Amino acid sequence: MHKYFSTIMEYITNQYSNESLLIAISGGQDSICLVKLMNNFDLKEKKCKQIDYIHIDHQWTKESKKQAEYIISYLKSLRKKVSIYQIKKTSLSEKISRLYRYHIIINHAIRYKYRIVLTAHTKTDKIETFFLNLIRGTTTEGTTALNLCRMIGHKTMLGRPLIYMDRQFTKFICRKYFLPLWSDNSNYNYSIKRNRVRNELIPYLRKYYNKKIDNNVLNFLNNCKYNNEYIKQKIIKTYLQHKHDKYVALNHKCLKKQHIIMQVKIIQFFLYHSINLFINKSRLISFINQLKKVKDKKCFTLVSNNISILGTNQWIYLRYHNISILNN
Fold it and tell me: Which residues bind ATP (predicted)?
């Protein structure tokens, strides 16, 4: 158990050995389990220069202040430093709350120069996130949102060392070591969609459709992950083959031989790589269809207030105000 966790942590910390590490915790069983496992890992391995904690209080319940005090007391008993942030503007929207939370955590990490940020997400959270994204109308890229680690900016890594473990595992750890847990009433507030997915939808599917729904979803997500990686590599390779050697432009004559979805993704990558701007699929499909009709003439679509993307039979390029980046 601890050996398996140590193997995952060694993989996460391999690129940033002997660096400061920040752990975001909520006070629930997953967070307290992560605190215990990290404490044991630190005592044995000594891989990190410093391990600190951060807690974000969303003020969803009247007991949130007491919960923050409990977290401070528990980490103080372990001689660990913790930073508490309180969000004054209360919101029950998971999306808005997540944006607030990650904004605070990332800014804190950058300000105090933490190279690694850890969260206590488990594979149970991964399954719940999949259903939430599916209901919202996600693509296959959106299904694989929670992975072991990813970069935040250029210098900070976000890691999820419990992502291969489920909530039953964290519950077992908490009981085995008699860890203090705080019962959070907000977990039973069904105005929060995740709670309804966790407590109603998934148990219903498990009982009436497939007992192995959890494993099947995880297998599907794993397949999506590898498919997405292949598609991304294909997009980058094709983009490098079709981009102009000197100007900010794409060779439309060669690009139009690709499948329309590949054309959309390559143009999206071209825009993001050139001007750090994302354009949705429907607008780009409309632009590509316009290009097919005009043939020898130019067509354009506005991508921002002062930038437009222009296309001819030969090139797709950008125009800033009235100055063409590529004079066709």
Answer: 26-31
Give CA–CA dist 169/246, Å, rounded.
55
Look at residue 306 in the predicted model and tell me its pLDDT. 76
Q: Is 30 annotated as a binding residue?
A: yes
Instruction: Say if residue 26 carries a ligand binding annotation.
Output: yes
Write the DSSP symbol of residue 49.
S
* Cα-based distances in Å from 8 to 23, 34, 67, 70, 307: 15, 12, 29, 28, 45
Backbone angles phi, psi at 319, to 5 degrees: -130, 125
CATH code of domain 2-209: 3.40.50.620
Residues 160, 121: contact at Cβ < 8 Å? yes
77 marked as binding residue: no
Once rounded to an integer, what is the mean pLDDT over residues 23-31? Answer: 92
Query: What's the pLDDT tens digit per position in 93-121?
Result: 777 888 889 999 999 999 998 989 999 99
**Where are the domains positioned within the chain?**
2-209, 229-324
Per-residue pLDDT reduced to its tens digit, 287-315: 888 888 766 667 666 666 678 888 888 88
Whose CA is closest to 38, among 113, 104, 111, 119?
A: 119
How many whole angstroms separate alpha carbon 238 and alpha carbon 232? 10
Give me the architecture of the 229-324 domain, per CATH: Up-down Bundle (1.20)
